[in-house]
Target: Translation initiation factor 1A
Amino acid sequence: MYKPNNNRKGGKSTTGQDGEIVRVRTPNKKEREVLGTVTNMLGASRVTVRCLDGTTRMCRIQGKMKKRTWIREGDIVIIVPWEFQDEKADVVWRYTGPQANWLEKKGYLKTV
Model:
């Protein structure tokens, strides 16, 4: 029998180092994920992102994100640089306003 999920908020919540509940996805260093800010919309599912490691990359919006998530200039995103060409990357996540404020408060968005 089908049983509906009563969790309407969606997503997982994990416990941080201080014991508080964290509901924001942070970049994974093992998967080479980097935080960045969208600086320019180029069209054809491409954006220019200023990354926290000091480089500006041309990034491609993944197919599963094209219609579901709208990305605008000034948004905070997680990107994964290509292995064979460092100046290009894929956008894998976009943060909402409250999530970006949380990242800034916790010190993830340090200025370069």
Summary: Residues 101 and 109 are 9 Å apart (CA to CA).
